[in-house]
Design brief:
The chain is mainly α and about 90 residues long. It has helices spanning about 1-70, 75-85.
Length: about 90
């Protein structure tokens, strides 16, 4: 039984050595993949912010155009607007 325990102990030591040698490699690969994920998330967030900003400015332009188009330019348009909407 003693040789079996000795062989099992050697196998455990070899496996621990392999794991110890692989840990730094796995750490580096994990950090690299993590940084890619973070970079992608930041770019997606920036894109979403730019899209929201563009939508805001489109809405502001539309609002400005609506205000300008609703202002009466002459007496007839003013009379028509007052009859439709009141003061």
């Amino acid at each position: 039984m003693f040789p079996f325990n000795l062989a099992l102990g050697k196998i455990k030591v070899i496996l621990m050595g392999i794991v110890a040698a692989l840990l730094p490699i796995l750490y580096i690969l994990g950090r690299r993949d993590g940084s890619k994920i973070e970079k992608t998330a930041a770019l997606e967030e920036a894109l979403e912010t730019e899209n929201e900003r563009a939508e805001f400015y489109k809405a502001m332009e539309q609002s400005t155009n609506d205000i300008e188009s609703s202002t009466p330019r002459n007496r007839t348009e003013l009379t028509k607007r007052l009859r439709e909407h009141g003061l």
